[in-house]
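Morning F.,

Quick status update on the modeling queue. The single chain you submitted on Monday has been processed. Sequence for confirmation:
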Amino acid sequence: MSAPSLPALPDVSLRTSRAARGLPSWLRFVAPVVVGAVIVLAWILVVDVLKIAPRMLPSPIAIGAELVLRAGIIWDDTVITATNSLVGLLAGTIVAIVLAGLAAAWRPVDGMLAPLVAAIAVVPIVALTPILNTMFGASSQFGRQAVAAIAAFIPVFLNVLRGLRQTRPVHRDLLRASGATGFQTFRVLTLPSALPYLLTGLRIASSLAVISALVAEYFGGPSDGIGTAIATYAKSGRAALAWAYVAGGIAIGLVFFLVTSLLERLATRRTPV
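Structure tokens below.
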């Protein structure tokens, strides 16, 4: 009597290889567009067809009309907000890199900076914004830029400090034994290890800088910028125009996020794991 044959097992190798490939690249671009289109269609259905939306939620068609009609003034305020965000992002990033380098090189500096960084991380931006706007005057953009810089400082500092500590002592000893100078060690070992962490922190900080700049404009300072316009037109009942400025703020955030994400991807591809 022959032994019973085992049932044939499905060939999972092909399916596993297909699953490992992941989704096609074009789907990553098409999917957000489709989701956005569905949201806009649902928005039109609720506002224009069913007419059950709140009073301050205008139709996307009305918002688009305001974007076209007021494109000039929206663009001017968008440039101001983007400038404040960019200045704050650059200033916060530079200070964070310098202090992270000092903290990674000298433990006493790290011990002194740790409580300060922890305190800055828990400071509410909403509470800090009116103080800085009043401190630097109602006609100065510096208070808004300072708020954006403070928001950008924390993620960049923490990520750069973590990246600078990724180098192993054995690698540093090997370079030192090979006669490498301190600058050569930094260029060949420390910088490539820390660069992906820096760009990850920069990507996170870019969104925080835009949000903080908008909040700072909302709570005072000069009478320009997207945040000020949103507050003004929302209070006066011009909801469509206020939402058009919201679209301008979203555009700034998307540009900052896409640029920093692209830089992060390029650095990750060029940096050996």
